Fold this protein.
Amino acid sequence: MALDAEREIHSKITREPGSRPSRLLRRLPAASGAAVPGVFVVLWSSAFIAGVIGVDAAPPLLLMFSRFAAAGLLLAAFARAVRAPWPRGRTLAHVAVSGLLVQAVQFGALYSALGMGLPAAVVALVQGLNPVVIAVLAARLLGERVNGRQWVGFGLGAAGVLLAVADRVAFSPGAWCCARSGCSD
C-alpha cells in the first residue's frame, strides 16, 4: 500500500516524457551520479555533529529550524537550476506532511534529546534502529511485505549501529529485566 503511494508520488514529480533537462543538468558528468550516495551519507550524518556542537550554542528547535531552512533554500535553488518539476495539489500536501513527520519530528526529537543531555551515542542508537522498528511495525500493522534481502540489510544496519556505540552502551541484566517488565526505581 505505501509502496503504491510512493510510486504514485514518484511518477508525478519525475520529468514528463519529452521534456528537456536544463543546461546545468546536461553538463554534469555521468560519473557525478556515483558520488550521490557518499554525499548523502555525509550530509545525513552531519545531523549528529551539528546537533552535539549546536545545542550548546542555541536552543534545539531553533538549531533544527536553521539547519533545515538553509538546506531547503539550497535544495530549492538547485531544483530551480535543473528545472525539476514541483509537486502540486494533493501530491504536494502528501510530500509536505511526510517531510514534516520524517524531518521535523525525527530531528526535533534528536536535537531536543541532545539538548536535554542525552549522550549522542544513545541518540544514534535510537535513530539507527528506526528503520528496523519501522519495518517490523509496517509488516505487522500494515501488512507490508519485507523480503529476506531487506531483513539482511536491516540486520547489518542494526549490527553496525550497535558496533558503533558498543563502547558507550553498558548491559545490565537487572536493568534489562526491570525495563522489560515495566518496573522502575
Residues 89-115 form the longest helix (27 residues). The mean pLDDT is 76.
